[in-house]
Amino acid sequence: MSPNSTSRFIRACLRQPVDRTPVWFLRQAGRYMPEYMAVRKHHSLLDICRTPSIAAEVTITAAERLGVDAAIIFADLLLPLTPMGLDFEFINGEGPVIHQPLRTLDQIRALRTDRTPDLSYVAEAITRVATHFNNKRPASPDAMDTLGIIGFCGAPFTLASYMIEGGSSRNYIETKQLMYASAPSSPSPQDRHSERSPQGGVEEPRESSPHHHSQHLSATNPQHNSAWPFLMSKLVDVLTDFAAQQISAGADVIQVFDSWAGALSVADYRAYALAPTTELIRRIQALGVPVIYFGVDTASLLPTFRETGADVIGLDWRIPLDQGWRAVGPNIAVQGNLDPITLFAFEDLLELRVREILSLAAGRPGHIFNLGHGIVPNTPVDSVLRVVDLIKRHAHKTAHAPNEATNDWAIRV
Ligand code: CP3
């Protein structure tokens, strides 16, 4: 990590003072943007993801059109499923479909963890994006306007939910069934690394008799109670390798998307998701970059999210920003949290909501302005540009140092 970064985005991730609040948008290169739709006309989503020149172009175009402080690489959460051995496709109007969802221990055992190099097209796209923006590095070392490059991957729970459900889900019945068939672990912050094998992984379940392997996983079958931790461990290995490739290629920060963690109770999150998520974040940070951890509908989970050790927590739009920040604690940066549908509202309301968020952040170091979830199709691009403009103009008022009077957390830490 560079303590003297010239990127206001990276500085904010590390809770260092910035000249103004950095801003970028979840799904900033997406279907709302005519430039993206023009590319999409000739290429499928997966073609764009798997062709580094096109993925880089889409990433760069969105960041430059909007004038934001960070570019998130154009890719998808589900890409690691292919080298793991699960085929999937995006079906128009239906979202992702995984053809043979994970339902048996045999299938989990067959998942490959050694083919992550197949994902190198994402790293290649990052190299192109990094080259493009490095060429434009500002002359003054005091400037804070170097664009941050964000790599990303899914969190173990959210990725597992797609693999097990076979696509998007409302109730996560199959996922939770598999989870509940495993022995819960309740790691406390102190001992959360001690329950695992020295490599941090979970050992493969012991085979008692071969005919058990292909049985449907169920809570009543004690033979299967290591299926969930086994799957989590494989995902943590693959996602760490995937993130490592992106970091070597030039990603400054990794965002871990646990989009559907909000489907879990606090007790279940602690028992089944916290340990693997913490392990993944720890391993990514060991590679030298900050980690942003994001989920939706997470108000009740925020105090637990702090235990993952993430540098930045992404807040969804439902919680007032100051309340969310208090829940994760002053030693963690926050990203968020405008309701993406506010971008459809009339100008005055949009402006009011943006100002409210800035005022709840109160100039404390460690706030990155963003939406509380992704931009949706049909969002007016002008509204997005208006938000960027508001953030940039707000900077002139708050000037360099955060207001000491309101910066009480920063004074204490
Ligand atoms: O600028 C960016 O943020 C674009 C890069 C990006 C995509 N997917 C491209 C994409 C990112 C960061 C993602 C992450 C992703 N993918 C998440 C986590 C983010 C979140 O929203 O919580 C998830 C859950 C997925 C899986 C996924 N990909 C789904 C469920 C869908 C279909 C949903 C829909 O709106 O149809 C996708 C498709 C997808 N991935 C699109 C884009 C731009 C839209 C479809 C298209 O262009 O055909």
Features:
413 residues, alpha/beta, seven-stranded parallel sheet, 16 helices, 41% helix, globular, binds coproporphyrinogen III
Concise overview:
By secondary structure, this protein is of the alpha/beta class. The protein has helices at 8-13, 34-40, 45-50, 52-66, 81-84, 105-110, 120-134, 156-165, 173-180, 227-249, 266-285, 302-305, 321-328, 347-361, 381-398, 408-412; strands spanning 70-72, 88-91, 95-98, 148-154, 253-257, 291-294, 312-314, 333-338, 367-371. The chain is built from 16 helices and nine strands.
Any overview of this molecule?
The protein is of the alpha/beta class. Helices cover 41% and strands 10% of the residues. The strands form 2 sheets. It has a 7-stranded parallel sheet. Helix 4 (52-66) crosses helix 7 and helix 10 runs parallel beside helix 11 (266-285). The longest helix has 23 residues, at 227-249. Residues 26-31, 40, 45, 72, 74-78, 90, 95-96, 152, 168, 257, 259, 374 line the site of coproporphyrinogen III (CP3).
Topology of helices and strands:
Blueprint: H1 8-13, H2 34-40, H3 45-50, H4 52-66, E1 70-72, H5 81-84, E2 88-91, E3 95-98, H6 105-110, H7 120-134, E4 148-154, H8 156-165, H9 173-180, H10 227-249, E5 253-257, H11 266-285, E6 291-294, H12 302-305, E7 312-314, H13 321-328, E8 333-338, H14 347-361, E9 367-371, H15 381-398, H16 408-412
Helix pairs in contact: 4-7, 7-10, 8-10, 10-11, 14-15
The structure holds coproporphyrinogen III.
